[in-house]
Amino acid sequence: MIKLLLKPAGGGDPVEVQLANVDRKSPHLFTFQRADEITQVVAEVDANGAGSMRLAGRVIPFFSHRSGRNVDVWLDGAIHRFEIVDRTARRATGSVAGGAKTTLNAPMPGTILKINVEVGDTFSPSQALVIMESMKMEMTLSVPHGGTIAEITCRAGQLVEMGALLARLEPAKGDET
Amino acid sequence: MFRKVLIANRGEIAVRVSQTLQEMGITAVAVHSEPDRNALHVRRADEAYQLDGKTSAETYLRGDKIIAIAKSHGVDAIHPGYGFLSENEDFAQACIDAGLVFIGPPPHIAAAMGDKIVAKKTMAAAGVPIVPGWAGEGRVEIDTIRKEAARIGYPVLIKAAAGGGGKGMRVVNQESELAAALESAQREAGNAFGDARVFLEKYITEARHVEIQIFGDHHGNAVHLFERECSIQRRHQKIIEESPCVGLTPAVRAKMGEAGVRAAKAMGYANAGTVEFMLTDSGEFYFLEVNTRLQVEHPVTEMVVGRDLVRVQVQVAAGEKLPFEQDQLTQTGHALECRIYAEDASRGFLPSIGRIVHYVQPSGPGLRVDSGVIAGSEVSVYYDPMLAKLIAWARTRDEAIDKMAWALRRYVVMGVTTNIEFLRNVVLHPEFRAGRTTTRFLDHHPIQADTGSPDSNAALIAAALSARAGTQRLSGSTAAVAASTDSPWTTAAGWRAY
Fold it and tell me: If you measure CA to CA, which chain B residue comes closest to A9?
């Protein structure tokens, strides 16, 4: 998982974005979050910065070049320049979270297979909370911190949209950032 | 035919000339400066020899060194490309004196056409229309000039006899400005060319730049290969060229072509040359100057006429007759050329230097790229920042514009700032599409430097992936900097940390 604050070089407000690998078995499958918008993307980039992505059915080749805090991106005939003003990177599969989360959301559209917890249960960091299936792949959803389940808003067998609220969480004390 | 030809140039033109030489079975010899030792023009040559030094003055302008290299390596002829020594009559003469063939017109033609006053008089005598103007002999009194300027009619243009690149050139809108403008033009011309002579011309405010490609051989034959329009210019330099010119009727085209041939015959022209004209809206055209070399924009002619002009240059220089007669030449379809520069259109076209980290040139039916660079190439402060020329050919002008816009959109150059997005904005401009182009196009139509596309999710995802990839491997950029030619890291010899 990587969380970045990207400042467009041409001016404008910094944009906070998050990119998370959904499942270790599918290294090219990511969820991308910008403000409240969550998108699923299949993407890869080579060591030189040449890459390609599939986003909402479109094939998008790109080239990137990083030098220090600056990232240049060539995309569809235009150069986009960003400065990385802040970054946090964390290993966390199946979570979109950066800091302590108060909700558990579906990172992709899919079917809820199993809910491992009940309201009032306490959970430990990275504990499997919900198991869902998307694109014929099983995903284990967890958060990197511990806490208590406040509410469960999905049920097994339910078809959910990307970003759908699955549960409300109360982070354990000391995990709130 | 020659066995070995030295190319006294660098960049895309050296690459392009070497291809034709090699196709003809001729060994292509490159010369290069120190920073250019791994440049594409060197890699494409059969043999390459270094000219010690970095600047043009120390290297590509050193005719003596280049001739010495040619003589010691069995070279038969020298192709000068464009720029550098291509229009230097002393260099052409020195080649001949050393027993080498200079692939270009005889030295006396370059000398005559390099003097703008002599060139104008030669053209007027040959019946080629010239801009109404006046050129005095020797020292002239300001009163005479004032009288002549009034006769020509304001606005008038003061130009330097030895001129070029806009130096010693002044626009004078009314008589009150004349004396000061004259003095400053003479001073600038004297400093730039060591020749303060100036002349007056009627200043034509709105015109197309249209030029006729001419070709002569050493057997008295001369033809023209139609026109190129080169109106889109920034800082008095062309950036987009095309053929045919939409502003020409068949009758005016024929008249201009005939004028070009008349000019060629009047000069006793041999090899490739270009006669430049201004073309007004009403179809009148006036002689500007003759360029006694292969032009940067020659590919648009090659595309519509279907001839390799470098091959013809080599054939003519070797003493062969022109391989075509006038009635065998026709224009087919439409060709456009865009010059890809390492420059920042948002900052007054300031040149950009650096190492090209990504380079992917578009390809496909009807496209041609004459490039001097590849990924990894270093764009230095020492030379002209033109990287490549993108040429699109199609059946009609509309289709050629579509193809050019398509290609520019897929042209990837990263590591230096380029004018690619700016060029795409020009070719997509409705007034350009409509063919309403004059040399003042960019003054009338301010063009955005970039496409203005918002930072879409895709751009942010790509940036995030690039940032993420950086954390997963050791940075490759340190190695890239260390390998780069003129970086401070390579010059810090002896500095070592244990």
Answer: B455
- Please indicate if any CB of chain B lies within 8 Å of the CB of A14: no
Q: Is A175 on the interface with B (CB under 8 A)?
A: no
Q: Does B462 sit within 8 Å of A64, measured CB to CB?
A: yes
Q: How many beta-carbon pairs below 8 A join chains A and B? A: 131
A60: contact with B, CB 8 A cutoff: yes
Q: Is residue A96 part of a domain?
A: no
Kindly state whether B463 is in contact with chain A, defined as any CB-CB distance less than 8 angstroms: yes
Q: Is B330 within 8 Å of chain A by CB? A: no
For residue B237, what are the contacts with CB-CB under 8 A and spacing of at least 6?
A: none
Amino acid, res. B39: A
Whole-angstrom distance, CA of residue B404 vs CA of residue A77: 12
Nearest residue of B to residue A76 by CA position?
B409
Residue among A15, A30, A53 whose CB faces B458 most closely: A53
Provide the phi-psi class of B164: left if phi over 0, else alpha when psi is between -120 and 50, else beta. Answer: left
C-alpha B87/C-alpha A3 separation (Å) is: 58
Q: Are A72 and A137 in contact (CB under 8 A)?
A: no
Is the per-residue pLDDT at A64 higher than 80? Answer: yes
So what's the ipTM on this one?
0.86
Which conformational region is residue A155 in: left (phi greater than 0), alpha (psi within -120 to 50 degrees), or beta? beta
Point out the residues of B that are catalytic. Answer: 293
Coil, helix or strand at residue B382: coil
Superfamily name with CATH number, domain B132-202: ATP-grasp fold, A domain (3.30.1490.20)
By CB atoms closer than 10 A (0-12, 13-18, 19+), residue B362 is middle
Chain B within 8 Å of A73 (Cβ-Cβ)?
A: yes
Radius of gyration of chain B (CA): 24
Output DSSP code: residue B167. B
In tens, the pLDDT along B46-104 reads 999 999 999 999 999 999 999 999 999 999 999 999 999 999 999 999 999 999 999 99
CATH H-level superfamily of B208-444: ATP-grasp fold, B domain (3.30.470.20)
CB B323 within 8 A of CB B312: yes
- pLDDT, one tens digit per residue, over B268-277 is 999 999 999 9
**B388 has a pLDDT exceeding 50:** yes
CATH of domain B4-103: 3.40.50.20
Q: Where are the domains of chain B?
A: 4-103, 132-202, 208-444
Contact A19 B420 (CB under 8 A): no
Enter the pTM of the model: 0.83
Distance from the Cα of A68 to chain B's closest Cα (Å) equals 9
The shortest CB-CB distance from B465 to any of A12, A45, A82 is to: A45
- The sign one gets for the Cα dihedral B162, B166, B168, B170 is positive
**Touching B: A residues 108-147, CB under 8 Å:** none
